[in-house]
Amino acid sequence: MGSQKRWLGLFFSLVVTAAMQAQQLSPAGEVTRRLAVDIFKQLIEINTTDSVGSVTAAAEAMAQRFRDAGFPESDIQVLGPNDRKKNVVVRLHGSGKHKPVLLIGHLDVVEARREDWTTDPFQFIEKDGYYYGRGASDMKDGDAIMSATLIRMKKEGYVPSRDIILAMTADEEGGTSNGVDWLIKNHRELIDAEFVLNHDGGGVLADHGKPAMMEVNATEKLYGDFVLTATNPGGHSSLPRPENAIYELGDALTKIAHYQFPFELNNITRAYYERQVPMAMGQRAADLKAMLKNPPEKEAVARLSKDPLDNSTMHTTCVATRLSGGHANNALPQMAQANVNCRIEPGHTLEEIRVTLEKVVNDPKIKVQFRENSNVLMDHGSDRHSYVPPAPRKEVFEPLEKVVARMWPGIPVLPNMSTGASDGVYTNAAGMPTYAVSGEQYDRDDIRAHGKDERTGVGAFARGVDFYYVFLKEVTAE
Q: pTM surpassing 0.85?
């Protein structure tokens, strides 16, 4: 009986050891997980919205974290165009064998009102297996993971083959002081790198909790805001008439809601779907094959487009996000206005989309203008368009394939296009190929970024911490 207990004890020990090794866990790994959660909580509870928050407060808090971890003052920079929008840049020096790698992540978050949420958006809350708070998935989780990883490497005395630079910045979500753009224009020497890893995208896509694929955003859509304005002489509300600015604007928005931009695939999204075909089942498998034909089958495209992720991958999308109108409760509105936010497929300019919206609305009484990041309205849109997707780099994808095979056996690594937008638009334009890589798992039916009760899974976050340390070491090992 005693020998049986010893055997069982040994067996249990081996199982636990194997599990720890499979997840790359160690005492240092456990410490890093706890540190990452602590940083995550600290960042969530610093309001970094454009309206009333301070990105500088978050940047200073992170700078202090790095000082406490032993980074010299000369390798920590807190700088920016104004008192509220400062960025933090940290450098872990390597052997210099290769040019640096730049890690980027934004510290600012989308606005959030307490009355809209079940919990306080600026309190870090753990509940039912999730962490809640504004920025929980976009992207203070990523900031915490990257910071904890660099701190662990510093404390271990790790010397990478290239300098690792971390820039956590302002105004990715809006505002007029985008940190990555500002750093490139004013302090390129601080962040110049051979390539960029952006934590604001990618990750393990799951279907109802089951990991399906590791996504890497190798290109992204172009962000654009457009303003529709209806004007009218107005009058007394006791004498209503059909010529009403709010009604006219409503008609225009209804037309946009019912309009679908043409189906498109680029080299990245076509490869993304081609690699999904062997994994797909049933109707989806048939639809993917039919959609990939030349010409594609319209019925298959229509069925796939019912899924918001597929729809946004295959089409430019435009949606009304803000409304205002009227000047008094007892008067006919003299003006009504709406913001229409578009996410544009690569290759199309902002002006091209403005003209398309104008044609869709087809009403001379509705003015369609382009809104610059500075909130200036322009009658002619910018000719800016999304960048050409960079070629996959072996320095990124070979280590990624290796780590994914170890941590999520059997799932493929698929380069894809971000259906949103990120600061990668600035780094790619500056000649630094950018890839959005994350080890956090998210479910395609529970994407809450920018929405109510934003959250990320407790287990997914812990796994993401484990992944990033191993992956970044692989990227910088030789």
A: no
